[in-house]
Each structure stands twice: as C-alpha cells, then as structure tokens.
Amino acid sequence: MYLGIFLLKMRSGMSNQLISTIFGISKSSIRRAVSTVISALMKNFVPQNIGLQHISRQEVIENHTRPLAQSLFGNAAQNQAIAVLDGTYIFIQKSNNFHFHRRTYSLHKGRPLVKPMVVVSTDGYFLTVVGPYLADYRNNDAAIFNHMLRSNIEDIKNWFQEDDIFVVDRGFRDALTVLEDFGIKAFMPHLLAKGEKQMPALEANASRLVTKIRWVVEAANSRIKRWKYLGHTLPTNQVPFIGDYVRIVCAISNEYLAPLSTGNADDDEALATKMQYLAKRVNSLQTFVEENALDRRSSNWEVAPDSLNFPKLDEEELRNLTCDVYQVRLCPSYMQEYIEGDADILVHKEHPGLIRVKLQRRHVTSKKYLLWIQYSESTVSAWYCKCSAGARVVGVCSHIASVVWYLGFARHNGGSSSGVQNWGDFVKDAAIIDVPDTDDSEVEE
Q: Which of 94, 78, 50, 431 has its CA nearest to residue 247?
C-alpha cells in the first residue's frame, strides 16, 4: 500500500490532503508512507538500476548504444562508449532565505529552480543523475560538468576511458578543454561566429549530425517530467528529496520502460552513410541565389498557380528528405499562415522549377525568412533558407520542410490545416478598438 501511495503521488502530482481523503488516512500517515518508500527504494532498488556503478561500460556499448550514433561518431574497432548529457530543471518555490533564493534563481528561466545533470546512453537509458545543483551563473552546464569530472563523482574518470564520446549542447562549450584534457571526444552543435546571421553550410551540416543523436536526452528529460509531481513547482521543504525523486523515476524508467530510441543496424548504417555523405557537400542553391541576387530581385517572380507541377511525395519520402520527423510535425502550423493568405508561393519566370516563399518566424512577429526550393517533376533537388540553419543539406530546416510538405503531400491528401486551431477568437486584443453598433434612429440630429 505504501508503494502505491508513493507512485500515485509522483505520477499524479496530487497533494497529501487529496491522497489522504482518497485512502481515508491522515496526512501524517501519507508523509510517513512516502518517507518509508523513498528510504527503501534508495537503499535497494535505485543502486541496481541507475548510477555508473550499476552497469558496466561494455554492457552500455553492446546493449545501449544505437548503431546510428556509433556509425556517425564512433569507431567500432575502438570500442567507444557514447553518452549524451544535459541539465534538466525542477522548479521550486521562492525561499525566505534570501541567500538560497539568489543562488537558485535562474535568469534564463526567470524563476527559482534546481538542476539535476542527466547522463543517458544513445538509446535513452539513464546512466546516472548527478545533483541537483544550484541555478545561478556559477552553475551552468559547463561548470556542473567540470565539477563532476574534477570531483570524480561515481568514479566517472575511470568508468569513461580515453576516446569515449560525449554528445552535448552549446551550454557545455566552456567544458570542452577539460574534456580534451581527459581524452574525451566531444561533439557539440556549432556556434554562430560574431556578426554572423547564418551558419556556413558545412558547419550547419555538422550540427545536424549532433542534433540527430542529442535529441534523446531531451526526450529523457521529458520522460522525467511525465511524473507530474516533478513537473510542478515544489515547496522548498522538498529540496532535500528532489535528487532522490529524480533518481527513483529514472530507475523505474530503466527497469520497466522501453528504450526511447531504437534502430535496425542495417537501416541505421544506411542513414549514417547518407548523412555523412551529405555533410561534406555545400549548398549549391545558396550559391545560385547569392550570385543572382534572387533575394532582392522581385520582378522576376510571380504567384504560383494552383496547378503548380510540384512532385507528389509520400510520408516515407518526406522523412528521407528531412532525416527526422520533428520538422514534419511543425509543418501544419507553419503553413497555416500561407493557407490563410498571409504568405505567397512565388515561381521564377525564367526558371519554372524554382520557387520562393517568405514564411513568418514562429517566435517573433517582426521576423520572416525567405526560402527557395528547386525541384523537377519527380524530386526536390535543392533548397536554401535564410534562417540560421537554412544552408544545411543534411536534412532541411522546418521552413523548407513546411513548404515541401504542403506542396508535395498535404494538398493532395486534404490535411493542410489539420489540428491547427486559432484560439485568438476567444481572447481580447487591446490593439483593436471595438466600436458598438449605433441605431441611426436614436442619433440626435
């Protein structure tokens, strides 16, 4: 019964008051049940299912490394372990201890929180969770990772060996030199150079290889937050137990849930070969656009007819083009503005197989991106977008994917705006003045 109470609390996020009402016992009994279960799980269950010492390095390589990651970044002959790292957030209430409040206040999130550091394999298996850490500028992802290495938490320096691989995000950039000192290879998306608005094609391609593998840690963090108690803002008196809560739910995930990322060895090898080949190519359409000033000359473009001879694509061809499904999921939302008449698809008068579209950026009203797509009757052959990652040829950005999805798939299948609802009709807009209707008969002359 105690275990059921604990799991109900973690999974549903219910308060002790509500749970006590459901079970017909006092709140003190609920607190005692939760405390008892935490102690028991942390003593017996958690050490067997999470932490670097619960699993051997060789077992991770053989059973928890996706072939795609090994093909993109590893070398099977070197027997390398590949790990993906990221910090996650557990929000807490404001503390009346001002020093603690300052140290846990995140300027990035604009609220107090603590940060566990999550380390997963490339199939989403939780290797370990360290922390939680404070949230101020002294505890960014790079500083936390440096602390893990220099403190040799869970004997991390002996568990990982020279030439092993860490896949990280840009928040770890200040830890790269430390990783090199320990002989660890790090792969991170490229940063925009000062003054640049767009990554060069080769750097954008290399970044796409990283994000193809790194997404699994984001999905793992999301799996933690599915336990609704950890998705709530916790009272400060729960801070001592947050690390235990996170480790327990991660251990449960390891023991009972399916891997987040799986792949057939042959399919993964074929995809890796394709992505590595594309990663070495520059964007030929970008060169053509820049040499012919197609971003400035508007007289050579006209609105595309409804009968535009764009190649018809199926879902498998779309996935092959994007190298993922994430961009495809965003397509209906991006194309809604085109469907509602806020964007035009233009075709070049002299090059019928070349179209241009200006799409609204989803986060910023004042920003729009120009994009170009080159196609033939049977295939989409080239693309280029002015967004920061739009020069890549390893997959496509969401803007390119949206236009291709609409022209090649949705308009033939009646799903162009499926699932996209504008809820603004139910919310007032202070920028619009509502003038009430006036009955002319009641107006005095």
A: 50
**123 in helix, strand or coil?**
coil
C-alpha distances in Å from residue 360, one per residue of 191, 336, 367, 402: 23, 10, 6, 12
Sign of the alpha-carbon dihedral angle for 419, 425, 429, 431: positive
The Cα 404–Cα 389 span in angstroms is 17
Residue pLDDT, tens place only, 106-155: 888 889 999 999 999 988 899 999 989 999 888 988 899 888 888 889 88
In 3-150, the DSSP E strands lie at: 82-87, 90-91, 105-106, 111-121, 126-133
- Best CA proximity match to 160, nearest among 140, 138, 141, 178: 178
Q: Please give the Cα distance from 173 to 180 (Å, whole number).
A: 12
Per the CB < 8 A criterion, the answer to whether 356 and 371 are in contact is yes
Preceding omega of 116 cis (within 30 degrees of 0): no
Are 304 and 403 a contacting pair, CB within 8 Å?
no
- Rounded to whole angstroms, how far apart are CA atoms 220 and 259? 10
Question: For domain 53-197+209-270, which CATH number applies: 2.30.29.30, 3.40.630.30, 3.40.50.300, 3.30.420.10?
Answer: 3.30.420.10
104 close to 114: Cβ distance less than 8 angstroms: yes
pLDDT value at residue 338? 63
Beta bridge partners of residue 373, listed in sequence order: 355, 383
DSSP, collapsed to helix, strand or coil, labels residue 313 as coil
CB 245 within 8 A of CB 225: no
CA distances to 15, 244, 377 from 45, in Å: 25, 12, 59
Report the amino acid identity of residue 26: S
Q: Read off the pLDDT band of 340 (50, 70, 90).
A: low
Q: What is the mean pLDDT of residues 258-273?
A: 79
Amino acid letter, residue 5: I
pLDDT 10s digits, 398-428: 888 888 888 888 777 766 555 667 777 788 8
CB 340 within 8 A of CB 321: no
Q: Closest by alpha carbon to 370, among 349, 395, 397?
A: 397
Secondary structure class of 360 (helix, strand, coil):
strand
